[in-house]
Amino acid sequence: MSALLNDLPRYRRMSSDDLDDVIAIENNVYPHPWTRGNFVDSLNAGYHAWIAAIGRRIIGYSIVMIGAEEAHLLNLSIAAHWQRRGIGRQLLTFMRKLAADYGARRMFLEVRPSNVAGLGLYADAGFTEIAIRRHYYPAGQGREDALVMSLQLQ
Questions:
Q1: According to CATH, what is the number of the domain 2-152?
Q2: Among this protein's residues, is 136 annotated catalytic?
Q3: Residue 56: CB partners within 8 Å, gap ≥ 6?
Q4: Which of 5, 16, 38, 119 has the fewest CB atoms within 10 Å, i.e. is most exposed?
Q5: Model confidence pLDDT, tens digit, residues 95-115
Q6: Active site includes 30?
Q7: pLDDT digits over 50-79, tens only?
């Protein structure tokens, strides 16, 4: 039983000391990853940046900006080896609750149409598509649109 408990992710605030591990995951799971500067800026801005860890190993992270009764999910990533185990779903649930606890009534996010796993995760969590941002993301050739999704929290 204790082995199972040790395999459950724990959440803690992200710090600058985590950035080497976070960047390694980011670079591994995305063809167009966030830069170190994007993470530093998010931490400096006071966004809610959280780590999912098993023991001392960082297996995922998420960043959400909260204000004016809205939350914007900026990044939610799980290390490749840990994907497809429900950890992304758990981390999303944690971030949704966090946003609601800080007074957000609605959460927004952008996702690539080509991110089939992400689209499934967000749809299963109750997010609905509300708009398209044309040419939002860098892509291998040109730009890719973003689907804007929204979820009522409260």
A1: 3.40.630.30
A2: no
A3: none
A4: 5
A5: 999 999 999 999 999 999 999
A6: no
A7: 999 999 999 999 999 999 999 999 999 999
Catalytic residue, candidates 47, 61, 122, 137: 122
What's at 9, amino acid-wise? P
Q: Which of 30, 70, 110, 136 is the catalytic position?
A: 110
Kindly report the three-state secondary structure assignment for every residue of the chain: CHHHHHCCCEEEECCHHHHHHHHHHHHHHCCCCCCHHHHHHHHHCCCEEEEEEECCEEEEEEEEEEECCEEEEEEEEECHHHCCCCHHHHHHHHHHHHHHHCCCCEEEEEECCCCHHHHHHHHHCCCEEEEEEEEEEECCCCEEEEEEEEEECC
Domain segments of the chain: what residues? 2-152
**Can you name the residues that pair with 152 across neighbouring β-strands?**
106
